Each structure stands twice: as C-alpha cells, then as structure tokens.
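User: Hey, quick favor. My workstation is busy. Could you predict this chain's structure for me?
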Amino acid sequence: MSVEVETTAAAPRVRRPRKGMLAMGAWRARFEIVQYFRSGDTLFFTFLFPVFMLGLFSVAFGSDGDVQLSPDVPPISMAELYLPGMIAAGLLLSGFQNLAMDIAIERSEGMLKRLGGTPLSPVSYFLGKIGQVGVTGVLQAALLLAFASLVLGVELPTEPARWATFAWVFVLGITTSALLGVALSSVPRTGKSATAVVVPIALALQFVSGVYLTFSQLPDWLQTVAGIFPLKWMAQGMRAVFLPDEYASLEQHGEWDLGGVAIALVVWLVVGLVLSRLTFRWIRRDA
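Assistant: No problem, here it is.
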C-alpha cells in the first residue's frame, strides 16, 4: 500500500494540451457569438448604438451643411467628423463595456463557478470572449462604414496606407479594450451593480476622448487627462485614417503622432493583460 501511495503522489499533473486549449477557445468563441446575437439589449447598446449615434449627430448637427473647425482646414460634413470617434467608441463598447458587464453578471449568477468545474481553462475562456469581441467588432465597424458611405455620403479613404493604419489601430484597440474589460469585471460585487460601475466609466471616457465632443475644442488640461486613457489614442488613430491631413494641426501636439498611438495602445494592452491575469477568478474571494 505504501508503494501505491508513493506512486500516486509522484504522478505528474495532467496538463491540457495547447491544441486542446485553442480548440476549446474556438468552440467557446462560437458559443459566445451565438449568445451575443440572441441578446436584444446587448445587441443594440454595444453593436448598433454607435450606428444610431452617428446617424443622430449627422442629422441633428448637419442641417446647416459642412463644418469648418479652423480657417486652416477644409470643411467636412458632420458625418465625416464624427465617424472616427464612433468607430473608436464601438471598440470600447464591444470590448471594455460589454465584457466587463458580461463577465461580472456571469460570475454573480454562478456561471463562472460552474465553468470552473469543467475542463475549460481560463485561457480558453479568455480566447472565447476575445474571439467574440473580435468578430462583433469587425462586423460593427463594417456596418458603420457602410452606413456612413451609403446613407450619409461619407467618402471613405482610397489609400492603402490609411487602411493599413486602420487595421493596426483596430486590432490593438479591440484587444486592449477586451483585456481591460476582463480586468474591470472583477470590480462589481454583483451583477446588478455592474451597469452602475461600468457604464459611467465608459461614458466619461467617450466625452473626454473626442467621441461626442470635438477633441480640439476641449481645454488643454482635459486633453492631457484624456491622453492617460486608451480611448483618446484609438480615436486619434481613427482620425488619422478618415480625416483630411490638414486636421492633424488640430491635435494636441499638431500632428497625428501615430507612433505615440501605437506605444500608448501597446502599453495599455500589456496593462490589461497583467491586470486580467491577476484579478480574474471563477469565484469572487469575498463572496
């Protein structure tokens, strides 16, 4: 009997194969996508909301024709002016707000506790959530661009370099937003309090980051505060894609500063990754 005990104690822990984690993550992503599109309220407030707001601002503020923010820049339509910010806001809503609330509710309702007792690893769970955010984010951006072009008459860029910028800003932005959403999901103590915790943060960031208010018209100190957070940099990167080159002069430092955009988003991506790894639990410790 002693030999059996020693053999059992010395047995190596069974590790999930990496391919198994990836396959489980892909399966989980498919499950999350199906669930997402079955939820009417989530579908509107994180998927269709930016489209709705772009149309609303374009109609409400565009009745007087094109707007010219400075004598040194060409006039553009309100739809063209608001499009970059709405795309950036869509990244924030799809990743940050959606995941922070969704995971907090799943934890509060005991769903994460049940998942923790299955072969699903946290890595596969994260991959599923990020996969869902990536797919819905791409669809949302495509819908926004189609709506802006076909309905509001916005002329989209034709230069490949601009679309390359759009691609890397989009990928860094959606990934950073998703990881920060996972990290923030540990803050609400209950599912009911998730909305009260997450929505004000997302809303405040949108107002100071050049989404609903023209960034160049904000006070310098508020622009500096906004520069601490990733949404300002996502919006700035999108403005570099969709606005005329002359509009770079209206940025805080008089240029698009795409290098700064990349650095800021990478830093926040790393911060989100570390925080999500340190804070994620299947069950709250103070539950």
